[in-house]
Specification:
The chain is α+β, with helices and mostly antiparallel strands. It folds into two domains: 165 residues; 109 residues, no CATH class. The strands form four sheets. A five-stranded mixed β-sheet has the order 6-3-11-8-9.
Amino acid sequence: MRKLAMFAAVLALAACDRSKPELEKTLVQVQQISAEKDSLLKDVMQTSEFIAEVNTELAKVRSRNGKPTVGKSGELESNLSPAQAREAIRIRVKELTGRLNESESRLAASRKRVSDITAANAGLTQQLAAYDSTIAAFKKIMDNQKAEIATLTDQVNALTGENTQLKSDKVQLVSEKANLSADKDKLIVEQNTVYYVIGTKDELLKKHIIEQTGGALGLGKTQVPARDLNAGDFTSIDMTKVSEIPFPAAGVAYRIITRQDVTALETAPDKAGRIKGGLKIKDPTRFWGASKYLILIQS
């Protein structure tokens, strides 16, 4: 079609009363105008294809479950992280913007060159008008491409924002998980921590660990745990790790006055409630179930 139009132009020019050199010069000018149009059309088509590629890649990043990358052909592959894929697209969008700006500059420069070509040849005025129409069409396409690039940029920025929010949420979740884990460990330690104290009646009375009730005239009083016990007056142990509590004096009997389940001991107290040789606990959960505080008084 282009060759036919060029041939028609040549025939029209041949019909005019012109010399052969002028005809050849006009033909060269027509060829130059045609080449300018072909070059611009190629730029516009390449930019449109580039936009389509970026749109496809962006869609893959938004919808995929894998991890994309940019391969040799510019297609997304599968061994880059989402952040790397977004950065790759950001670079391509930036390259696309530069390419479009360059195309616009070439468009203006091409218009000037064609104007210079036709300035000296009144017979090419119609060619210039047709070329101006082509330039206007290309300019419209480029304006649309600018809008598409702006949309792509917004989408990439939105993805980056979403990624930042996801990272923030992940950090918060990790922090909350760590706090829950710490709270759980603390709770387990608290649940497993028990307390014991061993001493004479006078020692325990002096520390306000026990009280005496009942009796008359100072006789027949019973020793019971004080109402407010201070953990600092006791020795703390982990009931899951300590199953034996030695007595400070060998051969001396001691009596438990707290509410432990003595049936959970390996050796039960005698009929008077006395124990010698230390405590050996066979079932810590049952032994400590009724009270976390164990008080033993020397009998």
